[in-house]
């Protein structure tokens, strides 16, 4: 984009509320995540990701947003996202200004994920509080995600319109579920569209990135 992304852009995009699932409408195993925004004193805007521990059974070592399964004690998916953010990276709910519901998506595992956007009221946490789940915390400038040289897309030859997004960041590759949520966030706020055509592949193992 021609100008720097700002928090005001995000506030305008989330001024209109989007419908979200009620607690009693959630399927079994539903999850929720927080998409944390961190504004700097100079106005620069960043997204906060976690890098999952290598010992986890699923998505080990991948980037994710703080979040997890919606428990029976959670009043709604947002409560689950805030609870998990506190458990994983020590982000207290009182330190998050929730702007609203971003999207619901169903993963290829059949899990419904509800995503919410929130603004941090202070600096982002530096160290995870749950080392069993989170290896490190990464703060990624939103402007970096608009760098065409960092982006690529892949799609299966049988489903060429279903892209998988990839951003090659300094210490990790952003892709998969979190890549899709990031793409939806950029599209909703700034009207982002993927540059170029996806690489068509016929081997599903080629969806997994091989290096950073």
General description of the model:
It contains four helices and eleven strands, in the order αββββαβββαβββαβ. The protein is α+β, with helices and mostly antiparallel strands and 212 residues long. Strands 1, 2, 3, 4, 5, 6 and 7 form a seven-stranded mixed sheet that branches. Strands 10-9-8-11 form a four-stranded mixed sheet. The relative contact order is 0.19.
Please sum up the structure shown.
The chain has 212 residues and is α+β, with helices and mostly antiparallel strands. 18% of the residues lie in helices and 31% in strands.
Q: Portion of residues in helices?
A: 10-25%
Low-confidence stretches: none
Radius of gyration: 17 Å
**Number of contiguous helices:** 4
Features:
Nucleoside Triphosphate Pyrophosphohydrolase; 7-stranded mixed sheet; 212 residues
């Amino acid at each position: 984009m021609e100008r720097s992304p700002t928090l005001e852009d995000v506030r305008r995009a989330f001024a209109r509320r989007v419908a979200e699932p009620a607690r009693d409408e959630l399927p079994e195993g539903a999850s929720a995540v927080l998409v944390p925004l961190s504004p700097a004193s100079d106005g620069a805007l960043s997204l906060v990701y976690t890098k999952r521990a290598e010992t986890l059974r699923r998505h080990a070592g991948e980037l994710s947003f703080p979040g997890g399964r919606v428990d029976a004690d959670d009043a709604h998916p947002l409560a689950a996202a805030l609870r998990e953010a506190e458990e994983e990276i020590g982000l207290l709910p009182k330190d998050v200004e929730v702007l609203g519901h971003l999207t619901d998506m169903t993963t290829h595992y059949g899990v419904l994920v509800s995503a919410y956007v929130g603004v941090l009221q202070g600096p982002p946490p530096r160290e995870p509080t749950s080392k069993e789940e989170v290896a490190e915390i990464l703060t990624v400038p939103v402007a970096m995600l608009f760098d065409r040289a960092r982006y690529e897309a892949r799609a299966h030859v049988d489903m060429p319109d279903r892209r998988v997004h990839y951003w090659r960041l300094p210490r990790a590759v952003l892709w998969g579920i979190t890549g899709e949520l990031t793409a939806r966030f950029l599209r909703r706020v700034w009207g982002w569209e993927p540059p170029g055509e996806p690489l068509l592949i016929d081997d599903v193992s080629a969806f997994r990135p091989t290096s950073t």
